[in-house]
Amino acid sequence: MFAREGARVFLAGRTQAKLDAVARDVAAAGGRADVAQVDVFDQRAVDEHAEGVAASVGSIDIALNAVSVMHDQGTPLADLSLEEFMRPIQGFLQTLFVTSKAVARHMGGNRPGVVLTLSEPGARLALPGILGDGVSAAGKEAFSRLLAAELAPRGIRVVDIRPHAVVDAPAAGSYTGELFAKSAAASGRSVAEFLGDGGLAQGTLLNRLPTLSEIAETAAFLASDRAGAMTATIANLSGGALVD
């Protein structure tokens, strides 16, 4: 989507095969993508990668943090270990800090910059079994809001995107199926049924979950000058599961 909007795309992630697959999609859309295998928990490696990108093109205009870590959903407090509780909190917030710090120093020069982050409805839901997920989601949204206040004097915007579970994510190769396996099994349904019309989708006003394409379209809009007055806010893509 960014390539179609004319952006020069730099992809960084853990798995070379997945990076290469997305780069091929970008090329097929008429764009160009450079790929780099980077461990987001290695702060020095992330800093060096960001410096290399900025050196090659002059600055970084847009950064999208789509990092995720496998975590528990469906286990109540009595059975939840401290390690499982802390896994998403430590993982998600550490990656936000590392990536945001790495790119922010290369933003806000001749052009405004945009940092996009992702959270989940768990930040606002009162449901059992999502303690770590919900706390981490709330932390990501707070991080984005506070970072926006810090970076605004330099013309850098920060916007959080809050989708629901993504209906076509398992087919795209994410770990969504594994993530919801425990909750689906407890309800006696498959993951597809748990996410579908009789499951999470039913809890939205639109009776459906967002798609990857819708999230990408929203990200491209938020990164553009058309959303130039938006910062320190959340784009709610929950299908009406949450009403702001």
From TrEMBL:
It holds the Pfam family adh_short_C2. InterPro entries: NAD(P)-bd_dom_sf, SDR_fam. GO terms for molecular function: oxidoreductase activity. Transmembrane segments: none annotated. Keywords: Oxidoreductase. Belongs to the short-chain dehydrogenases/reductases (SDR) family. This is Enoyl-ACP reductase-like protein. The lineage of its organism: Bacteria, Bacillati, Actinomycetota, Actinomycetes, Geodermatophilales.
